[in-house]
């Protein structure tokens, strides 16, 4: 059944687990996630980005997720809008049936300029106001996603801050987080701790200076009742990179957010963990392998099936690692 994000996050907090929120763009991703959730007996958060809306269009995304709800009536499913750039975008998503929205006011509506704190409070508060009156959950974001290695804002696919950032901007401030949650009444807060979107997060296995798990603990201590959200939380498994390279892909050395670090975050208030890249890597590796090993095949179902299997494997692993397996 379609459920509210708040309901799932409250249950996760009461029982001390986290939930992966997987980005979806097409049928194969939706079915992979649902098959994985069915096998792991896990609740599901599926989210659609602006890029997904551009690729598939809101009606297709909405109906794909509705189809998942119909096909798996025993699995709780959240239909979440990822990175809404304005109150109008969030409003439109709610009108089309999303049960949960992210108002990303850390950046201005252009998706590139770092917003003022006041702007972020204003737009987040506005979205909370119209969402809560109709039972829709709101995720807000404070701090700028980006790399503490290069001090660059997140650059993935045209969204993310332009130019050089300061350490202060790239790490969510503890006192400001407390003030922000009080003023906006958001249900969940996405925080900046050195993660960024996409495959190229870290040039080495991250240590505490570039992946600030300590900051999660400090924020959680200050606002223990706020559900925390980690963006840019793909782990970028080395074996998936190796498979892509083995079968003709060109990807340079890179590291993601280790699953153990996410588990540490979950011990300290992280309830929603956003994952897109790992599914992309898994599907691409499987498709590359299949086409190289079966050069005469041309039916998309032949190579999308292993792609779906590979995505499903990633989903099951995250459901188990984050503790939400068995919680459906
Ligand atoms: O927000 C970041 C997600 O990975 C979505 O990326 O805009 O390419 O769909 P996208
Ligand atoms: P990844 O690129 O690390 O998968 O992050 C996805 C994300 O944060 C979507 O909002
Ligand atoms: Na952001
Ligand atoms: Zn994100």
TrEMBL record:
Binding, dihydroxyacetone phosphate: 198, 232-234, 274-277
Catalytic activity: beta-D-fructose 1,6-bisphosphate = D-glyceraldehyde 3-phosphate + dihydroxyacetone phosphate
Listed EC numbers: 4.1.2.13
Positions bound to Zn(2+) 1: 83, 197, 231
Location of the active site: 82
Cofactor binding note: One is catalytic and the other provides a structural contribution.
Molecular function per GO: fructose-bisphosphate aldolase activity; zinc ion binding
Keyword DNA damage: no
InterPro entries according to UniProt: Aldolase_TIM, Class_II_FBP_aldolase, FBA_II, Fruct_bisP_Calv
Catalytic EC class: lyase
Coiled coil spans: none
Similarity comment: family membership: Belongs to the class II fructose-bisphosphate aldolase family.
Protein name per UniProt: Fructose-1,6-bisphosphate aldolase
